[in-house]
Specification:
This protein is of the alpha+beta class. It has 3 domains: 165 residues, PAS domain (Beta-Lactamase), CATH 3.30.450.20; 146 residues, GAF domain (Beta-Lactamase); 59 residues, no CATH class. The protein is 42% helix and 18% strand. It has 11 helices and 13 strands. Strands 8-7-6-11-10-9 form a 6-stranded antiparallel β-sheet, sandwiched between helices. A 5-stranded antiparallel β-sheet has the order 2-1-5-4-3, with helices on both faces. Helix 6 runs parallel beside helix 9 and helix 7 runs antiparallel to helix 9. The chain is elongated. It starts with a helix and ends in an 11-residue tail after the last helix.
Length: 411
């Protein structure tokens, strides 16, 4: 799916922020499993030959194993993270030693619960505080010690930026997942109504609409012929056989061959076209199915909480394209089936002209399947596309019209 260049640049910028930070950073899910790491986290793991430190690894298990090996700080870290996962705390921090083969090292671990919709996510950072600890150790006890390090970065800002990046990434992941669902519905080679239902369900899910339908343009081009309707749980008492003329906002979508929506539909002038008993519509969107430059159907969506957006327009347009492909393939398959039936019928007729044909020795008529006698021309014309032109062979011409012959017939 194509994206606006500036939007893609913004997403790449946000996703690049964590990798630009010197701090090691990871995001844990509601089970304590690592779901995201930045470049600094990966580099630290490689340089220190750490196993099982990347995405998909349980960070809680890592802490528990270190605690069993005698690390009191790891035990405290695991306990602090579990309190956060249980919703008891929003933040936890601890300093811990992490010596390397070359030198002693100390790190500050900080965990914060991210304020974002959906499942719990915890942002974990590790900052090297070795220089600070070494400076404190070098200062005599009676000397003024430097003030403890404040956080090396603005964690609130980092969290907000990471939150935006994750939400963008999750949103993009949802779009891709919905389009894959639509593609699977398209690839199953089923009838169009079934394919259209799969595409509609995926489109409704990703846009957040609660109701809708898929319809095709009538052969006369003046009505919508509804394939199926999803009222979204609201009451709809309209006669399903009632015509659905091409007018109102539907007409705009058909004429302009692009998705259109109205978030104030219930208060708009379009409402005058709604029949009595129709399901209540707070907002609507129509995405046309376009084949060879002509709008031939619609995906209708309605009643999205909060209203439709330009993002929904892009998604509905993509699903409209998929539905158009499905319809074109279905119609091509119908045409192939029709041609095959005609061919089979023609082959059946050809078979009738094979084998022994009952023909009269005198008048040369042929007996058909019903027992009636037909002239040769009629018999063949009824069983093939052959046409006849009539003339006389030389023998018949001499016999029937001797006066026109140069050589008289034998006596």
């Amino acid at each position: 799916m194509k994206r606006d260049q500036s939007e893609t640049g913004d997403i790449d910028l946000l996703l690049g922020i964590p990798d630009a930070l010197a701090e090691q950073m990871a995001v844990l899910d509601e089970r304590g499993v690592i779901r995201f790491v930045n470049r600094a986290w990966e580099v630290f793991g490689r340089e220190n030959a750490l196993e099982n430190h990347g995405m998909g690894v349980s960070y809680l298990d890592v802490c528990d194993r270190a605690a069993k090996n005698g690390s009191e700080e790891a035990h405290m870290a695991a306990a602090g993270l579990r309190r956060m996962l249980d919703g008891l705390d929003d933040e936890f921090r601890i300093e811990y030693p992490c010596p390397s083969p070359r030198e002693p090292r100390w790190f500050l671990m900080r965990a914060r619960r991210m304020s974002m919709a959906g499942p719990i996510r915890i942002l974990v950072t590790h900052h090297d505080i070795t220089p600070r600890n070494q400076a404190e150790t070098a200062v005599p006890d009676n000397a003024a010690r430097p003030a403890p390090d404040r956080d090396p970065v603005d964690h609130n800002k980092v969290e907000q930026e990471l939150k935006e990046a994750l939400e963008k990434a999750l949103d993009r992941e949802g779009e891709v997942r919905a389009l894959l669902m639509g593609a699977r519905a398209l690839l199953k080679k089923q009838d169009f109504t079934t394919s259209a239902r799969g595409l509609f369900d995926a489109c409704k899910m990703i846009t957040g609409a609660n109701a809708g339908y898929v319809a095709l343009l009538s052969p006369e081009g003046d009505e919508n012929e509804v394939l199926f309707l999803d009222a979204g749980g609201r009451e709809c008492t309209v006669d399903p056989h009632l015509p659905m003329p091409i007018r109102g906002l539907r007409e705009v979508a058909y004429r302009e061959r692009r998705p259109v929506y109205d978030n104030g539909f219930i208060d708009s002038a379009w409402m005058e076209f709604m029949p009595a008993g129709h399901v209540n519509l707070d907002n609507v969107m129509f995405a046309p199915l376009v084949i060879e430059g002509q709008a031939v159907g619609l995906i209708g969506l309605a009643n999205k909480p909060g209203g439709f957006t330009d993002r929904d327009v892009r998604l509905a347009s993509a699903f409209g394209d998929l539905a158009s492909v499905a319809l074109r393939e279905a119609r091509a398959e119908e045409k192939r089936a029709e041609l095959l039936a005609q061919l089979q019928a023609a082959m059946g007729e050809v078979k009738k002209l094979s084998g022994l044909l009952p023909i009269c020795s005198g008048c040369k008529k042929i007996r058909n399947d019903a027992g009636y006698w037909e002239y040769l021309e009629g018999f063949i014309q009824s069983r093939s596309e052959a046409q006849f032109s009539h003339s006389l062979c030389p023998d018949c011409l001499t016999r029937l019209y001797p006066e026109f012959c140069e050589t008289p017939p034998d006596e």
